[in-house]
Each structure stands twice: as structure tokens, then as C-alpha cells.
């Protein structure tokens, strides 16, 4: 395919500057986003085994529910009945709510003892997975704008630039795509190798990146989109429904059994399994039951489940709000559901989650390698001294990428130890992450990208290895109070940590070779270190 050289240069410039402008923010979003694919496993791993109360026998949920509703007025506002093993049978918020990221939420847990009496405990919600999701959605940018984090809007702008970078990158790569797609030319220097790797990852996962770019834009600015569409729809609901129902205040004694609610749900959505039922506003004119259902065979709206909404007293299903294929959402409702499902990757089951995890990490690599390519292209090969702008971008790149990785690794490494203290663990998580992130940023600028890339990778490896070592300590000294994995999912978190450590060890070897034995006119070459390391073999 023949494209004029001036057009190619224009698109290459557009690709470069949009990528550089948004790349580091998107690195955080993608790196943390990859981890969110296993948020349920992260929560289970970070939560002490005794945090959840014992599950009750089938059929006893109704007995417990009646005791909870009669003795706890707060539960009338909203209560969740879980049917999953490893979860408290009933819980409700004593402070806060399930919406958004809050560090001081407290939840009541309830179960029955052997005599059939209710036992309740009030506990802080462990928000480790929510911290990861917060970084994924906002890149860690603090502050609020309206009812959402300011970082969400910043990341939305970055996603728009990211989409432009994708389109422009494909256009200027088209002439050489066929002959160089699978080429990884190490023998032609670091710049060519990074460029080939960047192009391979970008083109191979292009559909995924387009999906993520578009959905992030929609999520970030959905309020503006809805506001614009409301000018067209007027008083008519965009998402279907809008039927007026007679307002009736129901009595708790008329509440059907949970089995009846489950059966009504499964009749409506037969290919699903009921995960939990959330009852809310039970003593008002607008009672609601949100039934969380799961299936690996359909496109689900949430990261882990679909929803069926109904009146818990009449069991009338609100089909316009149901997120399954059986619902009658209308055009816009179906579009929004599709955006959620495509972004979360929940429609593909475990295989889909793993694919999104790998492609999420690939996206993080894409932005990191893009910065390296930019730095290599601006290298002054006639002199050892590089421009201040190149040093600044190198320090910033290492500071942000390693800062995010070290911060998250530090949170995971300290999580079980933090649970031993008498403090709000979610605030402690934030302190650990931001302390490590900011310290890494400052250190990268003080020591320089070359020297700190080695120190930072060593610290990241140590923190990753600390995660399974903590479990070894728990096994050897059980009285200390921390715990070892008690499920395959928990063990998977620790095996994943070892995998990150091994990948970082490989990167460390490459970084050492680049710093100690690299080209002298590179910003990655550190002569002060090199004088003492020339005799060191790094092969």
C-alpha cells in the first residue's frame, strides 16, 4: 500500500504526541485494570478467614432474615442475602454504602449459632480491590469533580487521545505492516527492538484497545452524554420503562420467601445461578429486590454478575432494567449494557478474564515502550550528554511506571500485617500506596532513570516475593495472627505475585546490561556505576 510520505509523517507525529501525552496515565489505568479482573479473589485473599461469619443451612436464610429485619432498623434500608460459601449469609451497611470508593464503610454481618440464635458483628469493609479499581479508573489522581473523582475525567481525556493514537498508528504503520508485523529485530539495536515489540503488541490486540478506549470515554463522560440525550428524549425515559405503578406500602409479614424470589428469577433467566439477593426500601412505597445472577455463557453487565430487578412483595420483574438478554432495555439500555460487558470482559468467563488480564498488561507495556521509543529517537548520538527534556521524560517514565508497580506491590505485601493493627485498614492502604509512589517518583529524579531503574526493580521484586513469604510465616508461626491461603483463588494471587517477581527479575537483568554495558550516548548509561562494574559478567 502506497501512502504519501508527508501524510505518513503527519500521522506519525500525531501518534507520537497523543501517545506521549496520555501514555503514563494510561499505564496506571491498564496495569491496575489488569488486576481488577480478579477483584473477588483479591478481596478474599486480603480478608481474614474469620471476617465472614459461617454460612447457614439451606432454608435457614429466611429465619435469619426475619430476625435481622425485626431487630435492626438499618437493615430495612438495605440488606444483602448471600448464598455463596465463604460469605456471611446476611450483611447490611452500618455506615456508608456499596456505591463508590469509601475508606470508612462499616458492615454488619449476621448468622445463626447452633441454637438458632442470631449473631451479629460490625466490621470495616476491606477495600483492597476497590483501591486497585480506584487507580484503574482515576490513575490515582486525587480530588473530586461533581459526584465523581477528578481523575476519572482526566483519564477520559487520556482515553480520547489514546483512541487518536490508535487510529493514527495503524495508518502510518500500514505500508510496512505485512513485512514487519512479526519481526523482532534485536540485532538492529534497542530502538528497533522496542519499536517492533510496540507494533506487535499494538496491532495484535488492536480490537481490545479500541474497545477499552471507547468504553473509557463513555464511562468518564456518561453524565454529559445523558444530559445531551435528555434534550432529545425530554420526559420520556431513555432506557425504557417509565410505567407508573400504584404506590402501596407493604407489610413485612407479606414478604415472600427467598426461595420464591429465587424461583421467580430463575424462571425469568433460566440459564443463570442466583448469587445473592439485595432487598432495599422494604417499608416504603418503592421496595426493591436486586438479584445478582451469574453465567459464563452470556454477556454480563458487571465485572462478575448480571442483575434482575423486581418488587420483592409482588415479584413483578422490571424488565426494562434487567441486564440479561431476556430484558426489554430499549436501544440505549442495550448499548450501555454492551459497553459495560465489553469493558469488564465478564462475558468470557474465566478464559475471558485471563485474556483481559494479559491484554491489560500488554497495554501497560504498550505505553511504557512508546515512551522508550520516543527517548531513543531523540538521542543525540554525537555526544554523551543528552538534552534536559530527554532526562526529564526518562525520569518521569521510570518514576510513574515503577511507582505504580511498587506502590501496589507494597500494598499487597503489607496487607495481612496491616490487618493486625487497630486502625482503618483502607486508610492504611492509601498511605502505603501514595508513600511508595511519591517516594519512587522523587528517587527517580534524584538518582536518575538509569540508576533508579535497577534499585526500583530490586525493590519491586522484594515486595512481590514478600507476598508468598508472609504466608510461609503464617504457616510456621500461626500464633502471629496472619493467615495462609485457604483456597485455589487465594493461592493464585500469591502465584501471580511470584510471576510478577520473575518478570521483574528478567527486566532487571536487561536493565543492568543497558546501564553497565550500554551505549555511552544513551540516557540509560550510567558512567559512575559503569566504572565499578566493567568486570561484572551480566550474560
From TrEMBL:
InterPro entries: PepSY-ass_TM. The keyword Transmembrane applies. The chain crosses the membrane at residues 20-42, 152-178, 199-221, 354-375, 396-415, 427-447, 459-482, 488-508. The keyword Transmembrane applies. Keywords: Membrane, Transmembrane, Transmembrane helix. This is Peptidase. It comes from Pseudoalteromonas luteoviolacea H33.
Amino acid at each position: 500500500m502506497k501512502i504519501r510520505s508527508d501524510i505518513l509523517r503527519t500521522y506519525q507525529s500525531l501518534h507520537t504526541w497523543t501517545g506521549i501525552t496520555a501514555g503514563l496515565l494510561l499505564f496506571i489505568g491498564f496495569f491496575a485494570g489488569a488486576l481488577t479482573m480478579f477483584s473477588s479473589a483479591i478481596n478474599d485473599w486480603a480478608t481474614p478467614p474469620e471476617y465472614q461469619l459461617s454460612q447457614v443451612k439451606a432454608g435457614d436464610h429466611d429465619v435469619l432474615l426475619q430476625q435481622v429485619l425485626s431487630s435492626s432498623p438499618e437493615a430495612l434500608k438495605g440488606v444483602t442475602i448471600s448464598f455463596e460459601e465463604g460469605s456471611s449469609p446476611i450483611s447490611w451497611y452500618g455506615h456508608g454504602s456499596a456505591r463508590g470508593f469509601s475508606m470508612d464503610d462499616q458492615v454488619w454481618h449476621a448468622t445463626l449459632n447452633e441454637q438458632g440464635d442470631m449473631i451479629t458483628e460490625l466490621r470495616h469493609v476491606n477495600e483492597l480491590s476497590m483501591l486497585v479499581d480506584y487507580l484503574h479508573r482515576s490513575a490515582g489522581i486525587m480530588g473530586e469533580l461533581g459526584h465523581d473523582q477528578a481523575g476519572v475525567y482526566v483519564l477520559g481525556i487520556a482515553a480520547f487521545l489514546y483512541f487518536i493514537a490508535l487510529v493514527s498508528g495503524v495508518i502510518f504503520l500500514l505500508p510496512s505492516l505485512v513485512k514487519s508485523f512479526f519481526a523482532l529485530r534485536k540485532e538492529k539495536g534497542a530502538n528497533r527492538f522496542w519499536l517492533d515489540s510496540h507494533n506487535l503488541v499494538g496491532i495484535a490486540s488492536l480490537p481490545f484497545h479500541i474497545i477499552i478506549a471507547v468504553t473509557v470515554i463513555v464511562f468518564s463522560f456518561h453524565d454529559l452524554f445523558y444530559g445531551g440525550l435528555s434534550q432529545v428524549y425530554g420526559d420520556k425515559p431513555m432506557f425504557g420503562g417509565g410505567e407508573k405503578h400504584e404506590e402501596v406500602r407493604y407489610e413485612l409479614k407479606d414478604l415472600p420467601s427467598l426461595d420464591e424470589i429465587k424461583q421467580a428469577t430463575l424462571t425469568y433467566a433460566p440459564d443463570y445461578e442466583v448469587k445473592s439477593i439485595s432487598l432495599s426500601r422494604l417499608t416504603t412505597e418503592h421496595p426493591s429486590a436486586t438479584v445478582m445472577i451469574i453465567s459464563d455463557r452470556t454477556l454480563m453487565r458487571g465485572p462478575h454478575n448480571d442483575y434482575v430487578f423486581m418488587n420483592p412483595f409482588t415479584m413483578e420483574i422490571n424488565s426494562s432494567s434487567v441486564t440479561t438478554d431476556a430484558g426489554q432495555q430499549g436501544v440505549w439500555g442495550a448499548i450501555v449494557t454492551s459497553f459495560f460487558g465489553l469493558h469488564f470482559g465478564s462475558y468470557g468467563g474465566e478464559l475471558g478474564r485471563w485474556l483481559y488480564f494479559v491484554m491489560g498488561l500488554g497495554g501497560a507495556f504498550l505505553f511504557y515502550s512508546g515512551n522508550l521509543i520516543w527517548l531513543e529517537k531523540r538521542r543525540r548520538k554525537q555526544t554523551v550528554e543528552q538534552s534536559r527534556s530527554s532526562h526529564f521524560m526518562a525520569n518521569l517514565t521510570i518514576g510513574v511506571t515503577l511507582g505504580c508497580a511498587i506502590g501496589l506491590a507494597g500494598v499487597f505485601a503489607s496487607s495481612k500485617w496491616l490487618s493486625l493493627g487497630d486502625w482503618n485498614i483502607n486508610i492504611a492502604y492509601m498511605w502505603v500506596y501514595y508513600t511508595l509512589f511519591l517516594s519512587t517518583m522523587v528517587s527517580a529524579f534524584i538518582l536518575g532513570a538509569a540508576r533508579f531503574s535497577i534499585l526500583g526493580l530490586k525493590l519491586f521484586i522484594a515486595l512481590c516475593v514478600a507476598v508468598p513469604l508472609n504466608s510461609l510465616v503464617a504457616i510456621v508461626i500461626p500464633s502471629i495472627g496472619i493467615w495462609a491461603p485457604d483456597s485455589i483463588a487465594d493461592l493464585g494471587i500469591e502465584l501471580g505475585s511470584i510471576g510478577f517477581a520473575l518478570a521483574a527479575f528478567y527486566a532487571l537483568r536487561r536493565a543492568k546490561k543497558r546501564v553497565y554495558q550500554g551505549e555511552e550516548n544513551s540516557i540509560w548509561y550510567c558512567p559512575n556505576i559503569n566504572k565499578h562494574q566493567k568486570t561484572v559478567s551480566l550474560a
